[in-house]
User: What shape does this take?
Amino acid sequence: MTKKLYYDDAYITRFETSITRQGQEEDGRPFIVLEETAFYPTGGGQPFDEGTLNGTPVTDVEEVDGEIRHYLETRIAGRAETVTGKIDWTRRFDHMQQHAGQHILSAAFAEALDYETVSFHLGKDILTIDLAVERMKWEDAQKAEELANEVIRKARPIETKWMTAEEAAAYPLRKDLAVSDQVRLVIIPDFDYNGCGGTHPRSTSEVGAIKILDWEKHKGHIRLQFVCGDRVLRQLHEKNEVLKELTSVLQSPQDKMKDAASQLIAKAKDQEKQIAELKQELLKDEAKELQGMAMPLANGATFIKGAYQNRPVQELQQLAREIVADTEEAVVFFAVHNADKLQVVGAKGKKADQNLKTLAPAIFALVNGKGGGREDFIQGGGEPVISPQALLDKVENMLIEQITN
Assistant: This one.
C-alpha cells in the first residue's frame, strides 16, 4: 500500500518516490500509483490536494480499491521510474485551516449548546456542517462562535494519535468512530477528541479565525455556513468592496446604509405602483379606442380584433377582459408575434352567443399549436406560419360561419 506522507507531516510540500504502476480509467483519465505520497485523496469531507508530478498537473486524487490514484492532466512522458511531487501549499494549508476549524466549531456547539454535528462538507468557498437541531437563534450561533475563536486564540496544540478502537473508547469522543481497526484520533486537549483522517495544522492558532455566515433548514437539521482562516479575510475583503460600492451608489455612510436602502426600496415600490396605475389607465383608453372600431357580426354581436408584434400576452389578456366587461355583446380576438411564437387571446361578453371553446381547436390548428380555455375565454399559441392579421381574418370567418350555422 502507498505510504501516506501527509499523516507523517502535513507540512510536506515536496517529495521524491518510486512509481508503483500507471494506468488509465475507462473514461480515458490517466493515473499513477506511487510507493509513497504527500497528496491527500478526497475523503472525510475534505477535497484532494492539487500539485504536480514531474511537472505534470495532478487533477484529482482518489483512493480506489485500497490504492491512491493520482489522476494526471497527461501521462508522464518516457519510462520514468521515479517522480518528484510538489504540493499546492496554498490549497493544502487552506484545507488544513478549514478542517481544523470545523473540528473546533463543532466541538464548540457540542460544549456550549449540546448540538451534535451530523455531517460536514468543505467547499471551494465556504464550509457547511449539519447540526442535529431543527431551529437556532443568532444568540446560539454567536455563543458557539465566540467559544471557537477563544480556543483559536489560546493556541492549543492539535495532536494526532494512532490507536485501536478499544484504546480510542477511553477518550471522550465527540462522535462514534467510522472505523473499527486502526483509528487516527485528532485531539485538542481538554476540548475535542475526534476520529478523523484529514490534514490539520499543529496549533489552533493557525486556524486564524472562524466566522459563521448563515444557516438554513435542511432535511430536519440546521445547515450552517461558515469560513475559517484566510477565507475570513477574503470574505471581509469582498464584503468591504461591496459596501464601498453601495456607499457610492446610495450616497450614504455605512452606518446609515440600511435606512438609505430601505428608503430606496420604498420609493421604488411607490413608483412601481404608480406605473401599474398608469398602465391600467392606458389600457382603459386603448380599450375605448378599440371599442370604437368594433365590427358587427350578427345577432347584435360585435367583433373587435388587434394584431401586434412583440407585446406581452398577459397585457392583451387584460385588455380583452377590460373590453368584454364594458361591452357585453363584444367578441374580442388579439394575435401577437413574440419571438418564434404566434399567440392568440380570445374573449366574449355575457351577451354574445358565440362559444369560443368549440372554435379553439380549429384556431390553434392554423398555427400548429395548442391552447384551451372556456366558452368565454381562450388562449394559446403556436408557430408564426401566418401573420397575426391573417390569423385574425380567418378567426372572423370562423365566427361568421358559427353564427350562420
User: Anything to note?
Assistant: DSSP finds nine helices and 21 strands in the chain. The first helix runs from residue 5 to 8. The domain at 284-404 is CATH 3.10.310.40 (Diaminopimelate Epimerase; Chain A, domain 1). The chain has a mean pLDDT of 93.
